[in-house]
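Supplementary Methods. Inverse-folding protocol.

Structures were first reduced to a discrete structure-token string of length 360. This string, shown here, constituted the complete conditioning input.
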């Protein structure tokens, strides 16, 4: 232990044992999977990230040793630990300069976003020196003023190579291309079973996998276009899930991006129209439904049904508003309550979303 502590100190790392682990220290061969909770703090005690609370959930970090994770020091730290051990590591700035980029990706993942969102297409050090905002004030300050950090780590599990299924992010490019169709099919099966949240996660993983490959290509090149065509149906299915989850503005955003590239994609117009209708954007919904009919006249019955549902919701809302305003000037009529309004809107939303499954 003393010898290991001396080696760490020479590398600019100070280890403080908080709670000892159990068993023997692993040899940690390349390909070992380590699962751990972490808390990242400034030396003054200010906490930047905590895997137990990030994104409102407790989700431990998983690393495959030898896969050249961007924050290399984490691999160096965990190989000094026993399973179950809790330790605090104070690391010199030379080990932490890329932490703002790593933290941005981890925060994106916890929020259900693309882990590469907001990052420029260049190497980590180039991004650090570009002064490009990471979208978080604390990370921007750390990026402009690199400093030592304190990592408090609890090593939960150590899995030797061959004892676990390889995660998508740890696969080679060839493996990623091979696994995407399987992820797509798994998402479809989950959707058919009504497991919308799990299906959305599958579709998201497939999209992230392909986008990671696409980042390595020049936009517009043959390979880039091929990958984009693989992303499109996954993204449409993801939007279908988001419609059912009531995430209408996210649907509008994704479908608009698809339409910008593929202005004849009838499914993108149809899903965006439904999302516009759900958030009372009547003019936009009608315009999109009209485009759907222009692209595919056979969808006329479905479009008519959706327009009728939207019009009924609008009439119901207008009547609700009249009753509420009337109540403001009359002591005899009680005002409409927020509960009444929400109940009415929820009931109409169920009608609006009826039959969405047929769109996949």
């Amino acid at each position: 232990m003393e010898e290991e502590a001396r080696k760490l100190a020479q590398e600019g790392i100070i280890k403080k044992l908080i709670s000892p682990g159990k068993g023997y220290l692993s040899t940690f061969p390349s390909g070992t999977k380590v699962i751990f909770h972490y808390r990242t703090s400034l030396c003054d005690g200010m906490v930047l990230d905590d895997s137990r609370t990030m994104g409102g959930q407790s989700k431990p970090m998983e690393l495959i040793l030898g896969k050249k994770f961007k924050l290399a020091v984490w691999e160096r730290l965990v190989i000094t630990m026993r399973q179950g051990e809790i330790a605090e590591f104070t690391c010199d700035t030379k080990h932490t300069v890329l932490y703002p980029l790593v933290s941005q990706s981890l925060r994106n993942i916890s929020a259900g976003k693309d882990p590469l969102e907001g990052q420029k297409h260049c190497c980590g050090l180039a991004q650090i020196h570009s002064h490009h905002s990471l979208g978080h004030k604390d990370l921007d300050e750390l990026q402009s003023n690199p400093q030592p950090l304190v990592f408090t780590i609890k090593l939960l599990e150590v899995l030797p190579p061959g004892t676990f299924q390889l995660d998508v992010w740890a696969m080679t490019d060839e493996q990623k291309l091979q696994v995407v169709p399987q992820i797509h099919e798994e998402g479809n099966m989950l959707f058919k079973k009504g497991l919308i949240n799990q299906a959305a996660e599958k579709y998201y993983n497939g999209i992230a996998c392909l986008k990671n490959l696409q980042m390595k290509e020049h936009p517009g090149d043959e390979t880039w276009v091929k990958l984009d065509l693989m992303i499109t149906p996954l993204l449409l299915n993801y939007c279908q899930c988001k419609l059912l989850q009531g995430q209408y503005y996210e649907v509008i955003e994704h479908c608009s991006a698809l339409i910008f590239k593929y202005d004849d994609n009838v499914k993108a117009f149809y899903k965006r129209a439904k999302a516009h209708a759900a958030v009372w954007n009547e003019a936009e919904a009608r315009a999109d439904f009209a485009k759907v009919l222009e692209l595919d006249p056979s969808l006329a019955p479905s479009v008519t049904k959706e327009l009728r549902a939207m019009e009924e919701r609008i009439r119901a809302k207008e009547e609700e508003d009249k009753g509420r305003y009337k109540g403001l000037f009359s002591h005899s009529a009680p005002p409409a309550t927020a509960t009444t309004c929400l109940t009415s809107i929820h009931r109409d939303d169920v009608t609006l979303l009826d039959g969405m499954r047929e769109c996949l």
